[in-house]
């Protein structure tokens, strides 16, 4: 965007606006996934953040905090005096930073994108002055998102405005991408997270956002509603918004499936294929570990699931001894990825409708073959997360074994 003049001696890096909704996707009309608490309409402001908001035709007087912050918004947008306004804000003793940022965001939702980019520069200055922390900013963004009413005709514009604030915070280093993503766990406010990711891509480029995804261990599926988490659904959703590059696993899954069907496939040939064809940055990606684990388990247990015999069980264990080396290479020094292996095993067993004894055998393999540490298994037992299906049935099948494991320790 075109940047208004300001007092800084060096021009700021360009901060792109949140992308317009120019893709023909039904997802734009989806409502946020949140609880059934009452939502509140967006309070309208004039283009300069003036007082006198209305809700349902009724005038709403500004709060005491708003009475203090609104003049600062007006002054800042009129003068672009970052240092002066930042100094005043820092000296405010009766209003928390989170409240200040919440009011700034809320009262500039209807302003021009240039004005909101200017406000983002002020947020950055407050961060540099150690007044504003990432946690405070994320809390403010969450409060504003929760206050938006999806029934309001201007909801898409308001949502995009907040997505822009969040994306610029990532590009400025005010907040990390994983911290911003925490607002959208389990598909909250869907599809806002996709709009944020589009805007971040515009700001820092594909390489920049891919690096953050890998370094921060962000799982795309954890940011989407449960109904959108299959490989096909994720791929289609991201391709629609030109974000397919953030989910290269669809191609990997297809190639890996074909490779494992070959009669001459070995654990070594699979590992060589991974080293040759998969970006090494993905090797610590939880979603890749999830995909590999489920694919390998499908290959290893294919015979025993179809026909459980002494011979098929022997073959299963032999194959597991070979293929576990691939998973071991990826997770041996990372307990968080070992936890992904356990959850992948849970999901695989769930998808197979929990054949008798399967999950217990697989858990035993991971433990006895030194792929997953005991503490990870015990943490899985206590983890209340229901992000992955089948936890209840899985726990019922292996709980006694886990108790014996804990007692033996």
Question: If you had to describe this structure to a student in words, what would you say it looks like?
Answer:
- The protein has 409 residues and is mainly alpha-helical.
- The chain contains 17 helices and two strands.
- It has a two-stranded antiparallel sheet with strand order 1-2.
- A hairpin with a 2-residue loop joins strand 1 (53-55) and strand 2 (58-60).
- Helix 12 (286-306) packs across helix 14 and helix 14 (335-351) packs across helix 16 (374-382).
- It is elongated, with a radius of gyration of 25 Å.
- The model is unreliable at 1-51 (pLDDT under 50).
Radius of gyration from CA coordinates: 25 Å
Tell me the number of helical segments per DSSP (H or I, 4 or more residues long): 17
Strand-and-helix sequence, N→C? EEHHHHHHHHHHHHHHHHH
Regions with little confidence, pLDDT below 50 for 5+ residues: 1-51
Helix vs. strand class? mainly alpha
Overall pLDDT confidence:
86
Can you tag this structure with a few keywords?
elongated, two-stranded antiparallel sheet, 2 strands, mainly alpha, disordered N terminus
Give a quick rundown of the structure.
This protein is mainly α and 409 residues long.
Topology at a glance:
Elements (H helix, E strand, L loop, with lengths): L52 E3 L2 E3 L3 H16 L2 H9 L6 H11 L5 H16 L5 H14 L7 H18 L4 H5 L10 H24 L15 H10 L8 H13 L5 H11 L8 H21 L3 H22 L3 H17 L6 H11 L5 H9 L8 H18 L1
Antiparallel strand pairs: 1-2
